[in-house]
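Exam revision sheet. Question 4 asks you to relate a sequence to its structure. Input first:
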Amino acid sequence: MKDRLKDIFQWEVRSWSRALPIWQRNLPKERPLKALGIGEREGGTTLWLALEGADVVCTDLRPFPTRTKEMHLEYGVSDRVTYSEADVLELPFPDNSFDVVIFKSVIGALSEKQRQVKALEEIHRVLTPGGVLLFAENLHGTRIHRWLRKRFVKWDHYWRYLDPITDLDLFAPFSRIETHTTGLFANLGRTEFQRDLIARIDPILLPMVPTRWHSILIGAAFK
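Answer key, structure tokens:
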């Protein structure tokens, strides 16, 4: 199970994998299930959906590394996965195409809120009525997070981290949304071992601090 979680979530696995119970609870039970993975360079959330029995279109802006397809083959789900280069701002799929759309740590890279709004509108468009968006995205966290990112995170200058309160309007096109926050100091670890260790302590501290200090937003949004 540990290796599977690592292949699905890739980094800060203990914190980000807290999305799984929320995603699993909101994943439609009917099969066949047609799904779209966005920003799936390593193919992690595509892997999870395929293991759940969904047929998944795995997309990214750039060509996929060889390892992504190899991983899906190793897990025996390659027959459920197709690959496509796609821009979330202009998805090359018809309206009402997918029962599920999923992304993890993607829309922050769009830099501007208006572009994030456009991405969520596109996702809403390609979902079937009653379909669900499952997501996990980075929050801006504490002042310590923001200071350290400016010093050590090479993409900080263009990444737009979400606010767990004021940015919920991004999901305005959806009829209903369920959100949870998690993560605190684990992502300050310099190695995955350190992040895993700190992530064991974070749940004790999370209820004691403001939601805006949390570092991960998890949710399900319904069309």
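Marking note for examiners. The chain has nine helices and seven strands.
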